[in-house]
Amino acid sequence: MNRTEARYDLDMIVTWGDCDAAGISYYAKNFDWFTNGRMRLLESYGLPYMSAFHHQGISLVCLTADCQYKKMLRPEERVTLSTWISSLTRSRMAFSYQLYKEGGVLAAEGMTTHAYVDEHGQPVNLEKRHPELWNQLTETHRQRSEQVRESGGSPHA
Question: CA distances (Å), 29 to each of 12, 151, 153, in order?
Fold first, then answer.
């Protein structure tokens, strides 16, 4: 697969607690997994969410969330969640996700979009209000994207 964006891959094992009474992963768990992927991706950028955003008075408020389910997941299955930033602007950020079963079988894919807001719920222009954070975020994103392009699309975050 030729990839044009830097991804963060999170390996997981589906637990019984992730499943409904029929032993199939509960659909809403994908959104929990997406959150974990987002948090780890930001951490890999050197920007742990709590210290880089939350404790600075910035929240990433979810505006949209979508998931297409392709294959059932059951307890004890090993899966890999691939997460990447699909859009980055001064006021918003979007993430895309692909969840793979062992053997590279796509089980689900989705996306979320988020707005930067302050502690009062007001939109934030990240570049103006937090220029150091904005610069680190955009520079890391640019560097990782260039690395992927130069390598032919293979490296992950």
Answer: 12, 33, 29
Task: Tell me how crowded residue 77 is: count the other CB atoms within 10 A of its CB.
Answer: 17
- Return the percent helix, strand and coil in the chain, to nearest 5: 35, 35, 35
Q: Is the dihedral of CA 42, 45, 48, 49 positive or negative?
A: negative
- CA dist 147 and 122 (Å) reads 35
pLDDT digits (tens, 9 = 90+) for 76-85: 999 999 999 9
Say what the pTM is.
0.91
CA pseudo-torsion sign 40, 43, 45, 50: positive
Whole-number Å distance between alpha carbons of 51 and 43: 10
